Amino acid sequence: MATRGIITLADDAVVDGLIALLNSLEDMLTPDLSVCVIPYSDEIEQVQRAIQNREHVQLYDDAGSIAAWESFAREVWEAHPEAMQLWEQRYGHRKLHRGALHRKFCCFDGPFEEFLFLDADIVILASVEPYLEKLGESDLVVYDDQFRGPTHVFRMDSPRLREIFTEAELTTKMFCTGLFASRRTVLDGAKRAKLLADLCAGDAEVLYPWAPDQTVLNYMVLRSGCSVYNFHLELDERQRSATCVTYPDFEALDGGLSDRGIKVPFLHYIGIPPAIFSRLNDGDNVTFPYRDLYLEYRYLHEPRPLLRGRPKPYFRPPGLAKRLWQRVRARIPQFR
Q1: Concatenated DSSP letters for 99-164?
Q2: Average pLDDT of the segment spanning 136-144
Q3: Which of 68, 40, 36 is nearest to 51 (CA)?
Q4: 334 has pLDDT over 50
Q5: Which domains does the chain show, CATH number per domain?
Q6: Confidence of residue 317 (pLDDT cuts 50, 70, 90)
């Protein structure tokens, strides 16, 4: 078993992001650091072609692990007091909302004793070694300010939430699951069984149904008493940077980005649908923040597509009718 490595989750729908991620990692990898891609679905033909000539990249093929985590997720959400009903009201079926995202938990069964998990819509702009090095003193290492947006992690109005977690945990330990470093042993079989029992005994009510993998992983980490090191909290304000594509004030810096003169360690294109990257790949002149940086890494080893037409933003503000409907939805409990 390899000692350290990087893990991501992808299928053909996000293959362009995956290629950009892998290309951005190339200069950052050390000889003993490999990449493992967990399949998000069975649609992985393009993924297989994208990695076939990359010796350091492998496809995760432990069907038993994938099935076990899918079963775990199903039991967790069936224990939730309203999630299945909410999803059925919105989608007309009782399937898990974005259920395949729970496959990322296979990283705790994966081929690396220590790993860094990365969403496939991230580009790496600096060495990944600091995340792995901090595992010598913490169970989980992250770099984000998700603790500022707790409503996308837990149901903050749940009476049970503050019975099982302290205020300090809720204000310092919550994290975004797009990037985190950890070890295989952090969530072993015995811990998972105990966590599932607690969730089925009532803890599931604290979970936020619309960010399923994020809420479940945060719950497991906090409930297990894991130590969390967050660079965003530990670094001085003059040393840390923003990392999300929603931040408007990055500046170009030597093939990367700068935030107030601080080198940005990675950029998470969170919130930009995979279809937008596909459209760009097909020559549609669709624009989004820091598009040139994405294009630089996506087409590091091949010509860029010839873009057609005038530039157009990927997101247009909704019209009046849609804005009115959004206000109505916001007042209906099942749509919140």
Answers
A1: GGGGGGGGGGTSSEEEEEEEETTEEE-S-SHHHHHGGGT-SEEE---GGG-GGGTB-TT-TTHHHH
A2: 97
A3: 36
A4: no
A5: 1-336 (3.90.550.10)
A6: low
Strand-pairing partners, residue 266, are 124
- pTM of the predicted protein model: 0.92
Q: Mean pLDDT across the stretch 112-117?
A: 98
Q: Across-strand partners of 59?
A: 37
DSSP 80-105: SSSHHHHHHHHHSS-SPTTGGGGGGG
- In angstroms, what is the C-alpha Rg of the chain? 20
The H helix count followed by the E strand count for the chain is 13, 14
Angstrom distance (rounded) from CA 102 to CA 96: 10
Average pLDDT over residues 172-182: 97
In DSSP terms, 9 is beta-bridged to 38, 119
Residue 208 CA to residue 245 CA, distance in Å, equals 23
Burial class, 7, CB count within 10 angstroms (exposed 0-12 / middle 13-18 / buried 19+): buried
Of 18-32, 164-178, 202-216, 256-270, the poorest mean pLDDT is in 18-32
Q: Using CA atoms, how far apart are residues 40 and 13, in angstroms rounded to an integer?
A: 9
Q: What is the DSSP letter of 289?
A: T
Residue 336, pLDDT > 50, answer: no
Task: List, in sequence order, every residue forming a beta bridge with 181; answer none if it has no partner.
Answer: 116, 141
Strands 228-230 and 140-142, by their bridges, are parallel
Token reading at 94? 């009782």
pLDDT value at residue 324: 53
Give the tokens for residue 62.
């432990």
Strands (E), the chain: 2-10, 33-39, 57-59, 112-119, 122-124, 140-142, 179-183, 228-230, 251-253, 256-259, 262-263, 266-268, 284-287, 308-313
The predicted-structure confidence for 279-307, as pLDDT tens digits, reads as follows 999 999 999 999 999 999 999 999 999 99
